[in-house]
Write a structure and sequence with these properties.
This protein is mainly α and 280 residues long. The chain is built from twelve helices and two strands; from the N terminus they run αββααααααααααα. It has a two-stranded antiparallel ribbon with strand order 1-2. The model has no long low-confidence stretch (mean pLDDT 91).
């Protein structure tokens, strides 16, 4: 049976592999090439070398978006994971109605980013109008609006992964720690957290990449206002590519830089947290 499956393995893999090459590999390679050219369509590209990259790094909007996105990602990753961990912890303590609350917390993740952005825009402005402000009256309002929106949407999803991690911890280890007189805080630090590292690794990766790649919510909630001060990297790339004539190559160069940054940060995070898993 196993030999038969191996024999037909290429037949089953081939359609998916072809789709992957057409939809991802070829566009990715073309995108890297186009980042070194000036073009309006893929058929009229003209090689300009690293000029697009020089322009991208000298563009103040791009540098501001990079700093803004990094700041946003740090705050969001920390807040989402801490809150999701705490929610998961309490919902695995056997409290009444825990399954109802799990469903309730997870539901925001089912709403699309654009819809979510417009919903929260109405909510935030409804509150801020009372103080003669709007979400886009200053950058701080927009920043914290994005952080709250991101937390509200992702805590439930991260909670599910943490719940799975808590449920995989052998109960006898916790009971043994209690018998030895270990305090709950010490047990959390030396027993629970090391065994939760696989869940922590996954959640850090997901929140980190999603925070850097945030686009729909940013577009719907603030659209970069005021004066592009709340414009994140993905939105800046979009605006560069589609809103500035002759800047398509620069937009593509920004996209390549964006990919390298996200990949480097994500791989570093995976390497560091997986080492903790091994140590645990």
């Amino acid at each position: 049976m196993e030999k038969s499956l191996k024999k037909y393995f290429p037949v089953f893999v081939l359609p998916t592999l072809i789709a992957f090459v057409i939809a991802f590999v070829i566009p990715f390679i073309m995108g890297i090439y186009l980042s070194f050219t000036k073009f309006t369509t893929v058929t009229d590209s003209k090689w300009v070398g690293i000029k697009n990259y020089v322009t991208a790094f000298s563009n103040k909007d791009f540098l501001h978006a990079l700093i803004f996105t990094t700041y946003f990602a740090v705050i969001s990753v920390v807040s989402i994971n801490i809150l999701a961990f705490l929610v998961a912890y309490f919902l695995t303590r056997g409290i009444k109605g825990s399954y109802f609350f799990r469903t309730l917390f997870f539901m925001p993740n089912l709403i699309g980013g654009i819809v979510l952005g417009y919903i929260w825009q109405v909510i935030f402005n409804g509150v801020l109008y009372r103080f003669d402000m709007t979400l886009t009256s200053n950058a701080q309002n927009g920043f914290w609006g994005l952080v709250i929106l991101m937390n509200w949407q992702m805590i439930g999803y991260m909670m599910v992964i943490y719940i799975a991690g808590f449920q995989n911890i052998p109960r006898d280890l916790i009971d043994a720690a209690k018998v030895d007189g270990v305090t709950p805080l010490t047990a959390m630090r030396h027993v629970t957290l090391p065994l939760m590292m696989p869940s922590i690794t996954i959640n850090l990766f997901l929140t980190l990449t999603n925070s850097f790649k945030l686009f729909d919510q940013n577009l719907a909630l603030t659209a970069g206002a005021p004066a592009k001060q709340t414009q994140m990297l993905a939105l800046d790339i979009y605006n560069t590519f589609y809103s500035r004539m002759g800047w398509e190559g620069v937009g593509q160069a920004k996209a390549v830089i964006f990919f390298i940054i996200v990949a480097a940060i994500s791989l570093t995070q995976l390497y560091l947290t997986r080492r903790k898993e091994v140590d645990a």
